[in-house]
Amino acid sequence: MLGDGPWPTLDGACLHDYSRSRGRLKEATGEFMNFRNRYLVIAIRTLLGLIMLASGISGLLMGNSTQGVPEQMVAFTQVFWASGIFQMVKVTEIAAGFMLVFGIFPALATLFLAPDVVGIVIVNARLMPSFLWLGGIVFLLTAYLGYAYWDKYKSIFTRT
Length: 160
Hints:
Largest sheet: 2 strands, antiparallel
Strand content: under 5%
Order of helices and strands: HEEHHHHHH
Strand order of the largest sheet: 1-2
Low-confidence stretches: 10-20
Number of strands: 2
């Protein structure tokens, strides 16, 4: 039965408090769940950093090889490699991943990754829809960090 046990029940007033509290869920006990929890931010930041480090390092080590690349991606990766864009993206992923893992200007690293992540989602959606879930995960992790570091980004979006 709801309300029995250690978990508080959610009622209309609690949900109303949630909508007014900017990401904090007011429970029946009066405590708040902070979606900018320090440990959650560190865990997500580290996970995204490791994903980007792995992607960047494996991409550079693979070079222009088409071994293991899905057929629909071969021409795309060869053109990107020949133009130098592929190397630039992978170096950005390595640098930003390193910054995220070690906590060196993580808000700046998230900004570095934002265009890359949008590109990942678009490429996955257009060329490899079966891998769109992976792009979606990376997008959600990046969006969460954007939310967590929003106070640092506010000045970019306000007029002076």
